[in-house]
Write a structure and sequence with these properties.
Layout (H helix, E strand, L loop, with lengths): L3 H11 L12 E4 L4 E6 L9 E7 L1 H4 L9 H22 L12 E2 L6 E2 L5 E3 L5 E7 L3 E2 L2 E2 L1 H20 L6 H20 L5 E6 L6 E3 L2 E4 L15 E5 L5 E8 L2 E6 L5 H10 L3 E2 L8 E3 L3 E3 L8 E4 L17 E3 L4 H14 L4 E5 L5 H4 L3 H6 L14 H8 L2 E5 L12 E6 L2 E4 L1 H10 L20 E2 L10 E5 L7 E5 L2 E4 L9 H18 L6 H15 L17 H9 L6 E2 L1
Parallel strand pairs: 15-22, 15-23, 18-21, 21-22
Antiparallel strand pairs: 1-2, 2-3, 3-7, 4-7, 5-16, 6-7, 8-9, 10-14, 10-17, 11-12, 13-14, 19-20, 23-24, 25-29, 26-27, 27-28
Helix pairs in contact: 1-4, 3-4, 3-5, 12-13, 13-14
Bound molecules: adenosine-5'-diphosphate (ADP) and magnesium ion.
């Protein structure tokens, strides 16, 4: 085993030499209190930073075992440590010194959600594994050994001490973090017993700072959430704690209300309720069925061999919609395809917002039915399928719709957002529906027996040999991109991707699918299930050959969505 003196000696010998000499420091070095792994050495100061990992023995980190006895506790503790490490790096990191990334030490710090992440992981026995991106320092491509030594001995060590040793942590904050995570898991697990698909706790603060800043809006004018009496439920956890809030029942739920009254904000919070949020986020008591998926219009996306005939038939060009393929989907065809792909992948709650939907996919009113006869309209709007989807597949639909009351005929629940306050409007909506019949006729032809004919994922999908790469800047819209050879895979429509590390992990998930599971016989869903099973068994490290600190957990639903959006996707039926 290499002792740290060995690392220091190597550093001395390579000082001032060409950058390639850094290769000599790859390896494992025992510092006594921790083990340093230099897993990957960058080839050049301008290349992606080197990967450095630190393992702290359980006895040194000294975290209380009751906090990490189970997988949920380990995820929450590791997330807390990653946050403290990112903060400590802010204090102790001295930033770029020299060319390229020289002098940089970075950890992939989490955002508002507590995700399973590889920045810091906690092993069942209490070993802490923390992963850093390090720019090995150089000047004019020459090794700066002394700077490197101080980066390890002072900056990195200070971060380990402050952020990863229990005695230096705020124990109450750590306990609260873990408790918040566990509470959200427990609340989510209570939903089915109450017939709910989502729960928004009283006191929740839903609005965000901006469209590119997911932190809570801090403003006196924020209206805390308060359940309307008709939808007030109390969830009781095993430990006796009781949480009051609004339950969204299974079925078809409309969120209506005037413009700028908080409809989309509520919907977005519910959509994000698949994740657990950090204390102070404002959405700690918003939990949603873990299979909820936003379905939106994505005109321009490609579609491969999806049976969209439930919604679309008789396209003008004689396109077969039972095995629909296009390089350039319209708003409605893209939304129909996205919805059916999501259901095939296991979504049981569909979330739609009129802001991001194709109008003709949602509605077709009486007057339009008269002017454009059914024979000339390929689209069966969701309005005419919603009840069937619920009845036959048990799918719940949550829809924000301020612009049309036609859905009052099919909704189970109507919530009116009035100046950010939810009111029940189900009875009023029923009255309005009875008093003002829409006059429209349902145009839905009978649904086929098999809505999801098997789609086999062909290896030709991955014929382009160039590497899969994740380009995961999430801040600005439209930069959730994975590069697959010459194709860019645009994931901007996948709202549940909240962290760049998820996009990177998805790119690796595609690679795993390609290398191990897409044999030409398995369906898209089977391939996804095998990738997810591998992740469950081996953790996120199953995704990469070398340990990486930049991966976070994604759902099988997102992996299926990514595959379905590949422009190179080849499917056999
Ligand atoms: P809608 O979808 O009904 O048009 P939005 O949800 O987009 O409305 O909200 C409009 C604005 O109000 C947004 O800027 C949002 O951040 C803000 N907002 C939403 N909910 C609240 C709230 N509870 N308190 C204060 N401001 C809010
Ligand atoms: Mg809106």
């Amino acid at each position: 085993m290499a002792r740290p003196e060995k690392l220091l000696r190597i550093l001395e010998t390579i000082d001032g030499r060409g950058y390639g000499a850094y290769r000599d420091i790859a390896g494992r070095f025992d510092f006594g209190e921790f083990i340093l792994f230099i897993d990957h050495v960058q080839a050049d100061p301008f290349a992606a930073p080197s990967r450095v990992r630190v393992n702290l023995p359980a006895g040194i980190a000294a975290l209380p075992p009751e906090l990490y006895a189970d997988a949920a506790g380990r995820v929450a503790v590791a997330d807390f440590l990653a946050r403290r490490a990112a903060e400590a790096l802010h204090r102790h990191g001295r930033g770029i010194r020299g060319s390229g990334s020289s002098g940089l030490i970075r950890i992939d710090g989490p955002g508002q959600e507590i995700l399973e992440h590889t920045a810091v992981t906690l092993r069942p026995g209490g070993i802490v594994d923390a992963r850093f991106f390090v720019g090995l320092p150089a000047k004019n491509r020459r090794v700066l050994a002394r700077v490197c030594r101080s980066m390890i001995e002072s900056e990195l060590v200070a971060v380990l001490e402050e952020a990863l040793l229990y005695r230096n942590l705020d124990a109450d904050a750590l306990a609260a973090h873990v408790a918040a995570y566990r509470t959200q898991e427990a609340l989510r697990a209570r939903l089915p017993a109450h017939g709910l698909v989502a729960f928004v706790g009283d006191g929740a603060r839903l609005p965000r700072r901006s469209g590119v800043d997911d932190r809570p809006l801090e403003d006196d004018r924020v209206v805390p959430f308060r359940a309307p009496p008709e939808h007030r439920v109390v969830l009781t956890l095993d430990d006796g704690r009781r949480f009051a809030g609004m339950g969204i029942p299974a079925g078809i739920t409309l969120i209506v209300g005037g413009g700028f009254h908080g409809k989309s904000t509520l919907l977005r919070a519910i959509e994000r309720g698949i994740y657990n949020h950090v204390p102070g986020d404002g959405r700690e008591l918003v939990v949603t069925d873990p299979t909820a998926v936003r379905v939106r219009a994505e005109d321009g996306r490609s579609v491969a061999e999806v049976d969209i005939s439930a919604f679309i038939r008789n396209l003008p060009c004689g396109h077969d919609t039972t095995a629909f393929s296009t390089e350039l989907a319209s708003g409605s065809t893209s939304q129909a395809a996205g919805l059916l792909e999501a259901l095939a992948a296991g979504a049981r709650v569909l979330v739609l917002d009129e802001d991001t939907s194709a109008t003709n996919f949602l509605i077709r009113d009486h007057r339009m039915q008269r002017v454009v006869p059914a024979a000339c309209e390929p689209i069966t709007p969701l309005l005419d399928r919603a009840r069937e989807l619920h009845g036959r597949l048990g799918v719940s639909i949550l829809l924000v719709l301020g612009g049309s009351g036609d859905y009052f005929d099919v909704a189970d629940t109507v919530i009116h957002m009035n100046t950010f306050r939810p009111e029940d409007a189900t009875a009023r909506a029923r009255e309005a529906a009875a008093a003002l019949p829409t006059g429209r006729t349902s145009e839905a032809p009978p649904l086929g027996a098999d809505l999801f004919p098997p789609r086999r994922l062909l290896p030709a999908t991955f014929a382009d040999p160039s590497a899969l790469r994740g380009e995961a800047r999430l801040k600005a819209r439209g930069t959730r991109t994975i590069l697959l050879g010459k194709h860019a895979l645009d994931l901007s429509a996948l709202e549940p991707l909240v962290h760049p590390a998820q996009v990177t992990a998805l790119a690796e998930g595609l690679r795993l699918a390609r290398d191990h599971f897409a044999d030409g016989h398995r369906t898209v869903e089977e391939v996804v299930a095998l990738v997810m099973q591998r992740l469950d068994e081996e953790g996120l490290d199953a995704l990469t050959r070398r340990p990486s600190g930049g991966l976070a957990r994604f759902r099988g639903l997102e992996l299926a969505a990514a595959i379905n959006r590949l422009r190179s996707l080849r499917i056999a039926r």
